[in-house]
């Protein structure tokens, strides 16, 4: 091999070795970053997982301070160094300054990212930013021009006005059946609501107020309590309850009535029910039934009027009667009451 041929062979071998080194260098670059000078790498992709997007006036804002750990290697490249919600008065809620958003106040969100180790952000070639599976315009990204290690992401979540919490989906328990007493019936409900994953028991008077419909008379589907949110809560929820009929307070007691024999000789005598029975607190129509007694003493089933037929001899006659009150819309029928009265023929 002459000198010229040997020189050309050495040149080809040197070029092949250089190509192999370059390919190997590219293959060892980490995911989501590009190689740079002085052993630095550029962040090209960030996926944030649990950014809180539902502000409410009850809970402190939770912060995760982590990028998506489900993407292998990403949390080794970049971390969330700060998250802030800022209201229109420039009051800040962050992990370092926790707080509860104020009802009616508007808040904007800012996310601060910090590149780890030899990684940095490239202000000339901004990284792709993904949240909740959606990629956002990198015009919302700003890089710290001092060392390119900090990036701020803002405006990708629209400003939020903290609204009152709707209680229409609240869980209501403690509603009890009532019994008619002639007065307005009330309830002491337990109202529970899931607020952004936090179970909250609402307080009557501050979180809600109560009102009622058809809460006096007995019924199974007409009475209702309306729970209306106030303060940090809005909306309403209605729950029906039963007002049972009351027991019939009816009482009956027998008396002794006089009938004069001189009159019975010629004609039948009649006695009003009040002469033989004391009837109190009857609710509903009364009905009567004779259980025992002289056959010449008869009781009207509807009116209770007592008829003493002529020819009855002098003496004292015992009569046992059953009386029942039929009940009303608000009272149950009474049990059959038994009373004993006497007819004295003198």
Instruction: Tally the helices.
Output: 3
Q: For the terminal residues, how far apart are their CA atoms?
A: 166 Å
> Whole-number average pLDDT?
88
Percent helix: under 10%
Q: Which ranges are low-confidence, i.e. pLDDT below 50, for 5 or more consecutive residues?
A: 1-31
- The radius of gyration computed from the alpha-carbon positions, rounded to a whole number of angstroms, is 46 Å
The largest sheet is: 6 strands, antiparallel
Q: How many strands in all?
A: 30
In percent, how much strand structure appears in the residues?
A: 35-45%
Mass-distribution shape = rod-shaped
User: What structural class do the secondary elements suggest?
Assistant: mainly beta
Spell out the blueprint of helices and strands.
Elements lengths: L2 H25 L5 E3 L5 E3 L1 E4 L29 E10 L4 E3 L11 E10 L3 E2 L7 E4 L2 E3 L4 E3 L6 E5 L5 E2 L3 E2 L4 E3 L4 E2 L10 E6 L2 E4 L6 E6 L5 E11 L3 E2 L1 E9 L6 E4 L1 E4 L1 H4 L4 E3 L1 H4 E4 L5 E7 L4 E3 L6 E3 L6 E11 L11 E9 L1
Parallel strand pairs: 2-7, 3-8, 13-20, 15-21, 23-30
Antiparallel strand pairs: 1-2, 4-5, 4-6, 6-11, 6-12, 8-9, 10-11, 14-16, 16-17, 18-19, 19-21, 22-25, 24-28, 26-29, 27-28, 29-30
Report on this structure.
This protein has 346 residues and is mainly beta. Helix content is 10%, strand content 42%. It has 3 helices and 30 strands. The strands form 9 sheets. Strands 4, 5, 6, 10, 11 and 12 form a 6-stranded antiparallel sheet that branches. Strand 16 (190-195) and strand 17 form a beta hairpin. It starts with a helix and ends with a strand. Residues 1-31 have low confidence and may be disordered.
